[in-house]
Input
Amino acid sequence: MDLDKTDRAILMALQADGRATNASVAESVGLSETPCARRLKRLEADGYIEAYRAVLSRQALGLGLMAFTQVRFGVHSRELSDRFEREIQAIPRIVSCHNVSGSADYLLLVVARDLEDYGIFMRDVLRTLPGVTAVESMLSLGEVKRNAGLPLL
Output
């Protein structure tokens, strides 16, 4: 389905504020509430909206360190990759994981309280995951842009 200008405006409004009421979204996109609600239900049913969630503060939660971690495998097999991917699903401090091309096999975004906490996590968890033979970390010195939502091209 192609998104029209109004659908895109609804999606942008919800990306900016996932708790926006139907009335406020309708007003911001120039619709009455009923047509806006119908469009919203259709956007949800068609899979454009996957979920609604709160964005939590890392600082308030005491997670001051963010690391981009490259993971390499020594042996590449489907079974090993599947085991690795299953295990990382259960590790909350791995915020995201991507299977990538290039010198690494996976790129993880990991949060920790501080450098010592991250070091312990590396030693006791990351390096013990199935297939992992090398781990390289890049520590974030400051977040310039936070996930602001997807562009609606």
